Amino acid sequence: MQEKKSDLRVQKTRESIRRAYLELLRARPAKEITVTQICRLARINRGTFYLHYQDTQDLLDSLINDLMAELSNILHKYSPQQLNENPFPIIYEAFSHFARHAEILPLLQKNSNSGFMEKMKSMISEMALTEWLPLHGDQKPEDYPYINAFIVSGTIEVFQVWLQSGMKKSADELASLIERLALQGIR
């Protein structure tokens, strides 16, 4: 019982630190936020902060890594064959995942020194090169880098336009659009 109580306290403390950090991130750039400011807002002492994070950059990286881990779980939920037959569910789930985090995504994109977008590009690229493209026997392996660049760039750009527009389109609308473009082009 003591372990569960301890785990719950750890979770609540980490959540309090993250909430305080995000609140501060809305008002100023990440590089201007100090551990002292986070601790004051989260109502914890510095020692408690350092039990969980090395510094503010570690906290920012942790937020990004958690989002990417969730995205990775979504991307690997479906087999390459399922994705090849019907890409809509995976695209829909990925954008739904991001829609659930709509409040923090612009903050992370703006403050991560491109770490957030680079991790997303890398994840999509790896999946396309290792799992999806090999299923398309009509494509030459020497063309994979070009096809991959097209897939990754298109997906990332759609994502960025979505963020910049205030995420007005639903995950369903975006998934339908991306699926149509990927399968049919702009016809």
Automatic annotation (TrEMBL):
UniProt KW keywords: DNA-binding
Top-rank taxon: Bacteria
Portion annotated as DNA-binding: 34-53
Listed InterPro entries: Homeodomain-like_sf (IPR009057), HTH-type_Tx_Regulator (IPR050624), HTH_TetR (IPR001647), TetR_C_Firmicutes (IPR039532)
Alphabetical list of Gene3D superfamilies matching this protein: Tetracycline Repressor, domain 2 (1.10.357.10)
SUPFAM superfamilies in alphabetical order: Homeodomain-like
Pfam families (UniProt xref): TetR_C_8
Domain HTH tetR-type: 11-71
DNA-binding keyword on record: yes
Protein name, UniProt field: TetR/AcrR family transcriptional regulator C-terminal domain-containing protein
Organism: Gemmiger gallinarum
Classification of source organism: Bacteria, Bacillati, Bacillota, Clostridia, Eubacteriales
